From TrEMBL:
InterPro entries: F-box-like_dom_sf, F-box_dom. This is F-box domain-containing protein. SMART domains: FBOX. It comes from Ancylostoma ceylanicum. Residues 12-60 form the F-box domain.
Amino acid sequence: MPTSCEPPARHQLDINRFPNELLLRIIQFLPPRDVALSAAQVSTRWRSLIKHNLARVPRIPAHCHVYVMDIDLQPGDDQTDGRSPIMQYHFTTFNTSQPDYRAKRRACLRGNDTFLRAIYIQHKRCGMMAEWDSQCGVQKLDASTATSLLSFLDIVALRVDVLKRGRRLMARRVDERFAHAVAFCEEMCGTVDPKSLLLCSQNPYFSWCLGEESLRRLSSFRSLDSLVLENMTGAEVFGGIKASLDLGKLKEIRMRLDAKHQSEVENILWVDVQGSLLISLAEAHVRCLDFSAFSESPAAITAITAADMCQFISAWRTLTCPWMIKSIMFNSTVTISEFRTVAARAGLFATALTDIPYCRFRTYHPSDPNAKLELSCYGNGVSRRFTLW
């Protein structure tokens, strides 16, 4: 009998017939974005399987931008779970394989993933209103689909902007809007443990402060390594935040004014950044620390004195191991001659400090002659910008 030349029949596998456990193992090896789209667009079985096994499926790192327009509300409209109509949420995702991921995440910028659409959430009396980006602008998104998509997001960067209008609201400087926003994200998203946090007050005449519950929520962030405070110039603002955070984990701390606030500052703006903060940074001695206290704004002057700088230099030299600093920048009214006088009285020039040209000073660590600390001064009008590195 002649053998048949016909190829053997091929059977196509239908993965939808696989048992749930095997199907879940396949889902675990999919890219996070494909898992999210599968939950939103594939069969009801996939959606249910993913929804009930969120802890076992890959998540998508995301950025959440919260806008708070703090205005007078009708009784019963204001909610403490983050569903107040004055709060809007913008979610964008990160692509960790892109070279700009780390820079954008640390600066708390919106996500760099152009494949997944941005999701916009707002609440009204009728319920949650959801939209997402489209080629024609934005289009409405079903609330259940939005909820499913948000459950795949891990919030790694969080920004909260607060704008208060009206004398009564401006007088109410301390609120819990931050805690409300975190509560909503914890309910809707996978995990909320941001590595980067940006807090911003949008009113140049108002310094927004976090309440006790908000500070408690802030202290629960274990992975936070980058903090940006924008237009937060009040004396009590950074004090409460500093007490709630572990400075030993923060690699980047930036206090700054945006362009609008800088144009509003006509005279000198005294910011309550005391010299004790330098000592706290020295005690934490985070490797490659990047710290800036309104250094981009010449009119924003800290309360750091020449004695504080000398004490910081002495503290740096007494550390067991050399502390490598990326930069510590701030503005002060201290002059070069005043610093020289205070340093001479403290005996630094006799034992450790060297005066070098162009308004710079240098010292070396006793345990390593190659480890150095430099202090430079640059006159920028009404103040002088000091840099330690």
